[in-house]
Amino acid sequence: MIVGLGNEIAGDDGVGIHVARLLGERLAESSDVDVVALPWAGLALLDILRGRQTAVIVDCLTSDARPPGTVVRLDQEGIAGSVRLNSFHDISFPTAIAFGRKMGWEMPTQIAIWGVEAAIVDTFFEGLSPAVEAAIEPLIREVLEFIEPAVRGLATMGATR
To answer: Which of the two ends of the chain, N or C, has the fewest CB atoms closer than 10 A to its terminal CB?
Structure first.
Protein backbone atom coordinates (compact mmCIF):
# COMPACT_ATOMS: atom_id res chain seq x y z
CA MET A 1 0.00 0.00 0.00
CA ILE A 2 1.31 3.43 -0.95
CA VAL A 3 -0.39 6.43 0.65
CA GLY A 4 0.23 10.00 -0.44
CA LEU A 5 -1.00 12.58 2.05
CA GLY A 6 -1.71 16.23 1.45
CA ASN A 7 -3.82 19.11 0.31
CA GLU A 8 -3.20 19.93 -3.32
CA ILE A 9 -4.57 23.48 -3.09
CA ALA A 10 -2.10 24.38 -0.32
CA GLY A 11 1.05 24.49 -2.41
CA ASP A 12 3.80 22.12 -1.35
CA ASP A 13 1.47 20.45 1.15
CA GLY A 14 0.15 18.57 -1.88
CA VAL A 15 3.42 16.74 -2.58
CA GLY A 16 2.11 13.42 -1.23
CA ILE A 17 -0.95 13.65 -3.48
CA HIS A 18 1.24 14.40 -6.52
CA VAL A 19 3.55 11.47 -5.75
CA ALA A 20 0.57 9.13 -5.24
CA ARG A 21 -0.94 10.10 -8.60
CA LEU A 22 2.31 9.51 -10.47
CA LEU A 23 2.97 6.21 -8.72
CA GLY A 24 -0.63 5.16 -9.34
CA GLU A 25 -0.10 5.70 -13.07
CA ARG A 26 3.23 3.88 -13.12
CA LEU A 27 1.98 0.95 -11.07
CA ALA A 28 -1.45 0.67 -12.72
CA GLU A 29 -0.58 -2.74 -14.17
CA SER A 30 0.50 -4.15 -10.79
CA SER A 31 -2.17 -6.04 -8.90
CA ASP A 32 0.19 -6.27 -5.91
CA VAL A 33 0.33 -2.56 -5.10
CA ASP A 34 -2.51 -0.22 -4.23
CA VAL A 35 -1.94 3.54 -4.30
CA VAL A 36 -4.18 5.98 -2.46
CA ALA A 37 -4.16 9.77 -2.10
CA LEU A 38 -5.65 11.06 1.16
CA PRO A 39 -6.16 14.53 2.60
CA TRP A 40 -5.87 13.25 6.19
CA ALA A 41 -4.07 10.68 8.35
CA GLY A 42 -4.67 9.58 11.95
CA LEU A 43 -7.54 7.16 12.39
CA ALA A 44 -8.40 7.41 8.68
CA LEU A 45 -5.25 5.43 7.89
CA LEU A 46 -6.44 2.42 9.89
CA ASP A 47 -8.90 1.28 7.24
CA ILE A 48 -6.37 1.84 4.47
CA LEU A 49 -3.52 -0.01 6.20
CA ARG A 50 -5.49 -2.78 7.88
CA GLY A 51 -4.55 -6.19 6.51
CA ARG A 52 -1.44 -4.90 4.70
CA GLN A 53 2.07 -6.20 5.27
CA THR A 54 4.02 -3.30 3.79
CA ALA A 55 3.13 0.38 3.65
CA VAL A 56 4.72 3.47 2.18
CA ILE A 57 3.58 6.92 3.27
CA VAL A 58 4.58 10.23 1.66
CA ASP A 59 3.85 13.56 3.35
CA CYS A 60 4.96 17.17 3.36
CA LEU A 61 7.42 18.36 6.02
CA THR A 62 7.39 21.81 7.57
CA SER A 63 10.24 21.46 10.04
CA ASP A 64 12.36 24.27 8.54
CA ALA A 65 15.33 22.10 9.53
CA ARG A 66 16.37 21.43 5.92
CA PRO A 67 16.30 23.24 2.60
CA PRO A 68 13.02 23.06 0.65
CA GLY A 69 12.82 19.99 -1.56
CA THR A 70 14.94 17.83 0.73
CA VAL A 71 13.66 14.25 0.76
CA VAL A 72 13.87 12.63 4.18
CA ARG A 73 13.24 9.02 5.20
CA LEU A 74 11.45 9.05 8.55
CA ASP A 75 10.57 6.40 11.08
CA GLN A 76 7.27 6.11 12.92
CA GLU A 77 8.56 7.89 16.00
CA GLY A 78 10.57 10.55 14.16
CA ILE A 79 7.77 12.24 12.28
CA ALA A 80 8.24 15.74 13.67
CA GLY A 81 7.46 18.27 10.98
CA SER A 82 5.11 15.95 9.11
CA VAL A 83 2.00 17.95 8.31
CA ARG A 84 -0.46 15.07 8.69
CA LEU A 85 1.23 12.21 10.57
CA ASN A 86 1.81 14.32 13.66
CA SER A 87 -1.22 16.59 13.40
CA PHE A 88 -2.85 18.24 16.39
CA HIS A 89 -6.22 17.77 14.62
CA ASP A 90 -6.13 13.98 14.91
CA ILE A 91 -4.21 11.25 16.72
CA SER A 92 -0.60 10.76 15.69
CA PHE A 93 0.41 8.05 13.29
CA PRO A 94 2.22 5.90 15.89
CA THR A 95 -0.84 6.07 18.15
CA ALA A 96 -3.14 5.04 15.28
CA ILE A 97 -0.95 2.04 14.42
CA ALA A 98 -0.73 1.03 18.09
CA PHE A 99 -4.52 1.34 18.37
CA GLY A 100 -5.03 -0.91 15.34
CA ARG A 101 -2.73 -3.56 16.80
CA LYS A 102 -4.42 -3.29 20.18
CA MET A 103 -7.73 -3.98 18.41
CA GLY A 104 -6.18 -7.19 17.07
CA TRP A 105 -6.05 -5.99 13.48
CA GLU A 106 -3.25 -7.00 11.17
CA MET A 107 -1.26 -3.83 10.62
CA PRO A 108 1.82 -3.45 8.39
CA THR A 109 5.01 -4.79 9.89
CA GLN A 110 7.10 -2.81 7.44
CA ILE A 111 6.28 0.90 7.18
CA ALA A 112 8.42 3.38 5.29
CA ILE A 113 7.70 7.09 5.59
CA TRP A 114 9.12 9.76 3.33
CA GLY A 115 8.77 13.46 3.81
CA VAL A 116 9.62 16.34 1.51
CA GLU A 117 10.58 19.63 3.11
CA ALA A 118 8.21 22.32 1.89
CA ALA A 119 9.01 25.78 0.59
CA ILE A 120 5.46 27.17 0.51
CA VAL A 121 2.52 25.93 2.59
CA ASP A 122 1.04 29.18 3.88
CA THR A 123 -0.37 30.31 0.53
CA PHE A 124 -3.22 28.65 -1.30
CA PHE A 125 -2.27 27.67 -4.83
CA GLU A 126 -2.30 24.54 -6.93
CA GLY A 127 1.03 23.10 -7.90
CA LEU A 128 4.39 22.78 -6.20
CA SER A 129 7.33 25.08 -5.69
CA PRO A 130 10.27 24.38 -8.03
CA ALA A 131 12.35 22.84 -5.21
CA VAL A 132 9.62 20.39 -4.21
CA GLU A 133 8.75 19.62 -7.85
CA ALA A 134 12.41 18.70 -8.43
CA ALA A 135 12.29 16.26 -5.50
CA ILE A 136 9.44 14.15 -6.90
CA GLU A 137 11.35 11.93 -9.37
CA PRO A 138 14.18 11.07 -6.93
CA LEU A 139 11.55 10.30 -4.28
CA ILE A 140 9.60 8.08 -6.66
CA ARG A 141 12.79 6.16 -7.48
CA GLU A 142 13.41 5.60 -3.74
CA VAL A 143 9.86 4.36 -3.18
CA LEU A 144 10.02 2.01 -6.17
CA GLU A 145 13.35 0.61 -4.94
CA PHE A 146 11.82 0.08 -1.50
CA ILE A 147 8.71 -1.77 -2.71
CA GLU A 148 10.45 -3.86 -5.38
CA PRO A 149 11.55 -6.68 -3.00
CA ALA A 150 8.11 -6.78 -1.37
CA VAL A 151 6.32 -6.95 -4.72
CA ARG A 152 8.72 -9.63 -5.95
CA GLY A 153 8.07 -11.63 -2.75
CA LEU A 154 4.31 -11.34 -3.19
CA ALA A 155 4.50 -12.51 -6.78
CA THR A 156 6.55 -15.52 -5.66
CA MET A 157 4.01 -16.40 -2.95
CA GLY A 158 1.04 -15.76 -5.25
CA ALA A 159 -0.41 -13.24 -2.77
CA THR A 160 -2.63 -10.36 -3.81
CA ARG A 161 -1.40 -7.88 -1.21
So the answer is: C
